[in-house]
Give the backbone structure.
Amino acid sequence: MKIAVTSQARPRVAQPLADSGWLERVDDPAEARGHDWLLQLDRDRLALSRPGEQGKPVVVDFSEGPVGWRRARAHQERLVRACGLTRAHPPREIVDTTGGFARDTGLLTAGGARVTLLERHPLLHSLIADGVARAEPGLAQQIQLVHAEGTDWLAGRSQILDVVYMDPMFPPIRSKQALKKEQHWLRLLAGEPSAQEEHHLLTTARTHARRVVVKRPHDAQPLDGVPPHHHLPGPAVRFDVYD
């Protein structure tokens, strides 16, 4: 993997990505031709784009964009309800095992949760770290970002966790045009988990948590073929709940 990073963006890169050997500093984004990815600053935010592709870069921002307006109505979100977050319930400790671009963590913190956010890919981890660093202090204190693989991290816990949430990569679909840009990029970066990886993640999560919540396409089979205790359906996705 070859990642071009501008001189202005380089100081914002988190250590796991800095140590990866993937980075090449460029003085101008135009020099990123031939690289797989480009990191630069966009309105003082670490931003990811693909050289030669049109459209806005992807940033992790908890106050603006889709996450911003969804946070304002967090208690109406099915994810928040699936994790047991209500205005009457005390804050819960939630482990998000599949950080991605941290969109779901943004909702969970708005619902009152304290989130341990796991992300194994150094590039995604770096984008999240920048978003957390720019977040308002109260929100930043609700997030503990860890550079780790979900199954390994869970297996190392001695205590029973409150809630574990996972958003494994959706099953392959026929048309890549049907994927949103962020979903497509996550596939390129993280790859698709094997059936064995899905089995280990779900089994380990259920062993170490009182509740496990899994995000699935609305018409997909349950993860690893294990029926949930109940689910919250929706037009595009549903949330399977294992208690």
About this structure: Residues 65-242 form a domain with the Rossmann fold fold (CATH 3.40.50.150). Confidence is low (pLDDT under 50) at residues 174-178. The longest strand covers residues 209-217. The CA atoms of residues 121 and 190 lie 7 Å apart.
